Amino acid sequence: MQEWYMPMQRNKLMAQTITVTGRGTVTAKPDTVIITLGVRTEHANVQEALAENAKRANAVIHALKAIGVSDEDIDTASFSIYPKYNYSNGTNTLTGYEVEHIFDIIVKDTKKVGNIYDTAVTSGANVARHIQFRLANEQPYYQQALMLAVKNAKEKAIVIARTLGLPMQDIPLQIREESRAASFPPAPYSMTTLAESSTAPPIQTQDITITATVQAVFSY
């Protein structure tokens, strides 16, 4: 939260004032997509489960690189080993192990998302978490939203002053930035397990909404 004061105006805040809240909203098309998916394997022997998982995960990475995805755009989101038990007659019996390796794949061209998803699944990925739409640089959009919020606050104050017949000053005594928020659209679908033969559906991007809110104090 930030506050701005006009010079020598801090002591006037207790004078006759109008306090308003202004909001500004800007929408933008996402330019970055983060796909979270990976490989899950199961085997009675933990070493076999690990080996199979590593084989399939490496195949996915190799296939993604072959279509132009760089190393720095493939990150391990999580890696886990889960023992599996069978409960019978009041006793838990170890039956095997499940190994899961999940990746975050950063896609900087939204038109390539479907192809990248399909390539990963075809190459061995069988677990999908979600798809996130993002902006590589949100700041310019937020600054625009902030400008609109300040204008909105002034417009509200002018309406109030004119309605009451008050001689309002155009320059505010104080402006306080209330909040900063970006509303990212939900993933178009979210799946847990994928069949090896699955084909990824087309990905339709949605607008991202950036909102700024300010509180302004005007004197009259």
Write the layout of secondary structure elements.
Elements lengths: L2 E3 L11 E12 L3 E12 L2 H21 L7 E15 L2 E17 L5 H10 L4 E8 L4 H26 L9 E10 L24 E12 L1
Antiparallel strand pairs: 1-7, 2-8, 3-5, 3-6, 4-5, 7-8
Helix pairs in contact: 1-2
Give a short summary of the structure.
The chain has 220 residues and is an alpha+beta fold. Helices cover 26% and strands 40% of the residues. It has three helices and eight strands.
Q: In whole angstroms, how far apart are the ends?
A: 26 Å
Unreliable sequence segments: 187-197
Largest sheet: 4 strands, antiparallel
Q: Gyration radius, to the nearest Å?
A: 27 Å
For the biggest β-sheet, the strand order reads 1-7-8-2
Number of discrete helical segments: 3
Average pLDDT: 86
Query: Which shape, going by the Cα principal axes?
Result: elongated
Helix content: 25-40%
Strand content: 35-45%
**SSE sequence, one letter per element:** EEEHEEHEHEE
Content-based structural category: alpha+beta
According to DSSP, the number of beta strands is 8
